[in-house]
Amino acid sequence: MEKLIFPDLYCPFPSQVNQYVDVLEDYAFEWVQQFNLLKNTSEYQLFSKAKFFLLAAYTYPYCQIEELKIANDWMSWLFVLDDKCDSSDLGKQPELLKTLHSRFLEIFNGSEINKHDIPLSHALNNLRQRMLQIGNARCFNYFAISLKKYFDGCVLESINRASTQVPDFDNYQMIHLLSSAVDISIDISEFCNHHLVSDFVRNHESIKKLKMMTNKIICLCNDIFSAPKEMASGDVHNSIIVLHFQHKIPLNQAVAIVANMHNQELQSFLDLQASIPYFNEEINHEVTKYLSGLHTWIRGNFDWSCNSGRYQTGTMQNQIPAQVA
């Protein structure tokens, strides 16, 4: 495999980590073991190597321990589901995946657990109950919408895998914005910090665009770090791989294009953020807190990707430096 060499990624936001990171590391394994989410030693080793607890600690640096545990468990749940799709034929069976997702949504919306439900369903029910104890119904409803969008994106990916086709770049980007779970992660930020923004802020065109741009920035960053892993597994759902096939260009040229797209998108994010007008003290306080959540996710995802072993295959540089303004 061609050794990939990555240029610097622009990331002007400061690194932060939650004060409870060490507590979270021990707790993370207790929760997945409680619900039997890891079936064997190999899965346990992959989970340990990935350090999902670090992702939660980096991306939710301000929240208290119980909220942080819920955020961590969502990260674990989503990645365990993703790995089960990757390691079995489930990820290539869209109808079966739809059935599974439908049951998950039923449970998340209040359906009782039964004897036929799998461990992931029991873990999801636990997450639902804990979220309802801490959050409010409005926050919960927004989260349910984002969860449905994530499932839709996963099904679209499975359709591509089943057809063995490489999607075109625009189609891939559309799917990745859904299947990235970034919208879920931003909703968790509101939940964890007990900061549910008003409808005025949520529906403002600039805020909606900044949220979408955050998703795109994180997707491009993820594609850069995960490209060797996905090439090794034969998965084409990566912008570097899509560009390589679609334009018949060398992989390192595709890497440079994607890195440049990431950096340009982040600069556009900063430019748009700077153009947000003053509304009033209360609304601008909401906007500032919401944008802080976007910043910590962009930076935290980058920092986790640098420190996690999830994407290390020995075919890429282990360190991708960030340009800090």
TrEMBL record:
Top-level taxon of the source organism: Bacteria
Names of the cofactor(s): Mg(2+)
InterPro entries for this protein: Isoprenoid_synthase_dom_sf, Terpene_cyclase-like_2
Protein family per UniProt: Belongs to the terpene synthase family.
Record keywords: Lyase, Magnesium, Metal-binding
Lyase listed as a keyword: yes
Protein name (Swiss-Prot/TrEMBL): Terpene synthase
Signal peptide: none
Gene Ontology molecular function terms on file: metal ion binding; terpene synthase activity
Glycoprotein among keywords: no
Enzyme Commission designation: 4.2.3.-
